[in-house]
Amino acid sequence: MAVQAQAVDVPKARKIRWAVVVGPLLLLALGAIFILLGAYSTEPDATSTFTDEVLGNLFSLPSQATLYAVGALCFFVAGLQLFRRLDTIRSVLNWLLIFSAAFAFLVWVTSGGSMNLPGMFQATLTAATPLTLGAMAGILCERSGIINIAIEGMMLTGAFAAVAFASIFDSLWMGLLMASLMGGLMAAFHAVLSIKYKVDQIISGTVINILAAGGTRFLNIRLLEPAGLSAPGSFGTISIPFLSEIPIIGPILFENQPTVFIMLILLVVVNWAVFFTPWGLRMRACGEHPRAADTVGVAVNRMRYISVILGGLIAGIGGAYFSLGVVGTFEDNMTRGQGFVALAAMIFGNWNPIGGFLAALLFGFADALQVKMQIIQPVLPFINQPIPHQFLQMAPYILTIIVVAGVVGKVRAPAEEGKPYEKQ
Amino acid sequence: MSEERTPKETGLRHRIASLPRLVRLALLAILVLVAVLLSKQLMLILLLALGLWPITLALGLVVLAVSSIWMGGWPWMKSWLGARLRGLVVPALSVLTALIIGALILMFTDQEAYKLMGEGQVWEAIRVAVSNLVSAYKALYEGALGNPGDIIQAIRDSLATADLKPLLKALRAPSDSLVQSVPYIFAGLAVALGFRAGLFNIGAEGQIGVGWMVAVVVGYSFTGLPAFIHLPLAILTGAVAAGLWAGIAGVLKARTGAHEVITTIMLNYVVYRLSDWLLCGPLEKTVGTCRTQQIVETAYLPQFLDHPVTIHWGFILALVAAAIMGWFLFRTTWGYELRTVGANPDAARYGGINVGKIIVLAMFLSGCLAGMAGVVQGLGITHNIALGFQAGYGFDSIALALLGKSHPVGVTAASLLFGMLRAGAARMQSVAGVPTEIVQIIQALVIVFIAAPAIIQAIYRLRKRREEEAEVTVFSRGWGA
Q1: A233 in contact with B at a CB cutoff of 8 Å?
Q2: Where are chain A's structural domains?
Q3: What ipTM did this prediction achieve?
Q4: Which end of chain B has fewer surrounding CB within 10 Å, N or C?
Q5: Summary count for chain A: helices (H), strands (E)
């Protein structure tokens, strides 16, 4: 026995040492990037001005000093991590660091000019909406013990169903409802395959993704377009009276598409349901230790069915965001891999709705910034080329790989995830 | 396809096996040389055999029947066939069921029929729906294997005029099927190799892109090299680059326990964005096309026959890769270690196998194979790479690995089937106006039925066999370390 224990322990010891060094090194590199950007890419007296449509100038920061400050902060936290091992992704400090780094990029981009800050925040929130909805769908599914890589497929189905049924019933809200239901239907299929037939959950998820990609395109060409059912129009922005007139916060939070409001409400509800209700406790128990949950009388598989389908209902709404939110029609593969970014947000947020939301905001910010940078085109020092916007689009994926590898922060999946449960 | 090992050959096999190694190698070399010299004729015969498969099948059965005279007559033949066909029951029924469901979907989404239904002509509507379906599936078949009548007519014409052109024209469909199956074989082998090591390489799509891009870049960057250096160089760099790319996921899994499904999905999207940038930026030839320049002719994978039969040497490479993978998995120490890690990593570690090394190796080889799928497309078909190269081979390959039970022979057979479906779908779209995506739906259904054999067993009331139950593999071990 002793020999076996040793053999198993060796790689673990190595793994921790590796992570301890690489994480801070990445942070040091990030800090160095900011300081280099400050030193070589901004004029010493340039300022970054942030404006608001109503209030005019909000504030302006000296660009160089801000970049130096954030670079120093990166060094400081890297030092802390090296010597005191402050490395859980959930710690407030890490999120603070992540968002100040994001802000530093914004300062660099606007250096010597001005930017509409609430507009930027609003774009971030909008871009984060489908990611958050997808992440919540994944969380509900995975916390109960079923792996869900089918968020993309469920969202795509939702996007298609939204257009189809909104046209048939001539009502956008009916489209939204049916998008949710069809997302739930796909989730139910996933649940039946992985719970009843004990199909490998990753394979089952892949099936959903292929089926959704092929099925929506097929039905779109064969049914919707010939029948003229493919242009129901889109949701405009809805302003909530009074609240939307609050300066700065109003336009960010209370003047949005309906899906954004739904996302914010669901965020509160799901977080409360998963972490503060007996139901949530039982549901999480099914993912962490199904046998124990079964012993105390939780119907594990029924719980899993319910959670997976609830997740699908939410993912369907996320799909409606794409078709009814912006363009008002269905396009092939219109979710463009955002379902997988949502998966990344879920992991980045440590299977926690709030964490998922913060991660989605970060990824949404990268997306909004990327759009901005295509217009401003700030030039990198030394090579005198603008950053290709595709590199910013890669950020969510690379960050997720870094987090999953455990080099910066730690995430932990539900313990018994991916294993079919059989009553004994 | 069915005349494999007649007993006489088995006797021959023993005799050959007892020869010294050098003589065996020389025999193999002579055989290969003859095959290469006669490659045109052999390929023509293969295409004919595919196009006229009922005749091929009948010939095979006759050979079998004749050889059974020496082996013990009908009982022997029955058991010989039974042993080979039993494992095919569930896959064959899965494909059949998926095709039937595909047919139902086609019928229930028929606009013409709905229009007639709206006018109250119910019977007419059903008749139209059925006849549309028949013409669609007929196009699917003809796109996949060609029209047997046309082929026979073309043989007569060609014999009469001593001109190959009509025959080549008639054989275009089977050739297209083989061409489509080439990337499928590579990608399917890639996923299957991962499965054998207990790894789920879902990133084949991205690795295909890496291999394709690197091979094309090597293909146009070097000019003036002779083909026998340039072509292997392009192939190898493409495959190795994709292998290294997949190796990232392997290293992460081995060092930190990061689940390969997550990392390969994320790496996929990194490749997509990277290729967006490269193909519309540094590698673009004419601004606005998002397409690289053509590769130099010395890097072309040569084709066997003339236009419109486009089957190229990538097909032979794919078959060789399958053979090498079979040898590697079942005849070498590394292959044994790889399968042990896949079956039970803890036991493998206890048995003294370096699990981390095997995981990295498996991901690397899997990536190489996936990369080859892109390489053959780039060097054999398109001769460049353009934006939107993702054709779904990477995701379909999961179905292939499942359908072929992660065995090289099975994967190759499944790839031929999927290649036919894909080639047929293209014709179905142009002739019958059915969107090609119906094939994607059919493929997804095939995965469902293969992964959940209980559904097929319930539909056809098959008895469960013990060994089949034991064969069910569980890949997912959760996201965690």
Answers
A1: no
A2: 14-112+377-413, 125-354
A3: 0.83
A4: N
A5: 16, 5
